[in-house]
């Protein structure tokens, strides 16, 4: 379809500009829409309603929307069976027959592969009439008899923990509110679990800064008020503690940032009058926050840890906590060395006879099995066998999930790709290795034949920036196509081949998808991540621009729409304010867009490990230089923009998107302004995206895809076989 050559100007909702000015490190910075930071005020809610009143009919009238609404709905509502979890003769998995907005947790009592015919243990669809309450974490007790799970309302990060009986499905009276982040971590005798909790908010539930939490131990049947505090640091309120139970130890990993280094401490698990208890004596294994750690478990007397300590591409080490005394230097022994052939992922796990190792190589995953070389009958490992066995999971896949029951030789692995919504693998490691691909449910969405290539662009400083290029096979060698460019670039997060409805629908409709591997991510180890942080964040944006320019110069793209979520929303905000001429459309979603105040809400302070601290005079200039909200000008032609957020997002608060949208609309209302439009789409009763009902996801994706298609010239056209 032809592009609109001269779109009619819009009358944007009025939004008053206040005279708020902050003096930051000697610089006066205006913040005229500060009032939008209060999500519950009548004025903010009126602004949101007015924005939706403007955007809804425009999006609904897009001629491309009907085709995308149907396509995305079929993708999201295809039957699915998630990663199986074997526990004491039962197997659990999340399944959906295609009719439910939230998946069901199903249990196969005979230990077989869970299917749509098995017993539903937990149905989130019945938790509230609106369907916006979701299960965000869950954990089965070591004896297999109890399930602790956490539910969140309207996409919030706040969770309430409940417990039910696995055999009967009966709900127990245990209920713990105001928890966050940490899934319930069971004691080895199943008498209770550890969790992370905060004091109940006294102000704005979805906006106030969240600090000074507690790691507590809950005994089944006790009132939460009687739970014992195991770890609390009021003098360091920005530390989060993550517990792991491994062998005879509770391992506490604590960190002050989302992607920064952590420290480790241990407490012995000891017999108590009501079951296993946690010793009050704590031993620090590290105290200099020099590295990042993950706990894989214990073998014999030694803990097995994944780390980047001395290894940017990561390795596995062991330590005996009993050998750590006052004044002694902890001795970490290397078990699996850093590899030049890939980055060792923390999803690696212990098996009955060794390790299952997950490696990322050029942003795709592979799995390798390794047996232990043991020093003595206690099972203490001193190394792994030289002959490692690779598991054939296919090409260009991502390990989306991996599960091993404690002490088991059975590993379940779930892989995804740009064309595969999920394949479950059952791997037996001993006595003889076996690999079986489990059957997929009937009715899974078929994308058709697709071409996936890995071209490279060259960034401003000469760095090679890879991207995935995904096209329908029948269109891969044709003329330039409308292209959707996606990126993230932050917090050590890998952007791998992944089956996302918005990706699949764009490709199925005839568009080209480009997924950029930007610095700031974890695809190539810590050096790649570090090169995209703090005063080096501009590298991430430059990497994206290099990809966009390559897409055009290579004849791949006829027009480019740019899309990203969360930190990727920041990427889009920076891209459209720094290089607006590159984009036919921009889709910033739940983005971090005010880089001077992100740390003043919920857990935004934790992102300073990646972004830097606006309160630090040395780090402020880099943040101010690219902050999307502060780069808006009234003499710039901005690309057509659809900003999406949720009014209950308590991770990246909606004020980011609301203030950015208001500023852009104000700029486009001036006498010299052109282009646009800028639309705000605000989901009510929605948060950052977790647990969003499938129908709500389908509506958002259809709007975004139709908007991008309309402004890039993509006329949705399915292959003949699927027409």
Automatic annotation (TrEMBL):
Source species taxonomy: Bacteria, Bacillati, Actinomycetota, Actinomycetes, Micrococcales
This enzyme's EC code(s): 3.4.21.26
Keyword Cytoplasm applies: no
Keywords for the protein's UniProt record, in alphabetical order: Hydrolase, Protease, Serine protease
Protein name (database record): prolyl oligopeptidase
Catalytic activity of the protein: Hydrolysis of Pro-|-Xaa >> Ala-|-Xaa in oligopeptides
Top-level EC class as recorded in UniProt: hydrolase
Peptidase S9 prolyl oligopeptidase catalytic domain mapped to chain residues: 498-713
Record's keyword annotation contains Isomerase: no
Transmembrane residue ranges: none
InterPro entries per the UniProt record, alphabetical: AB_hydrolase_fold (IPR029058), Pept_S9A_N (IPR023302), Peptidase_S9_cat (IPR001375), Peptidase_S9A (IPR002470), Prolyl_oligopep/macrocyclase (IPR051167)
Domain of life of the native organism: Bacteria
Pfam families linked to this entry: Peptidase_S9, Peptidase_S9_N
Peptidase S9A N-terminal domain segment(s): 14-420
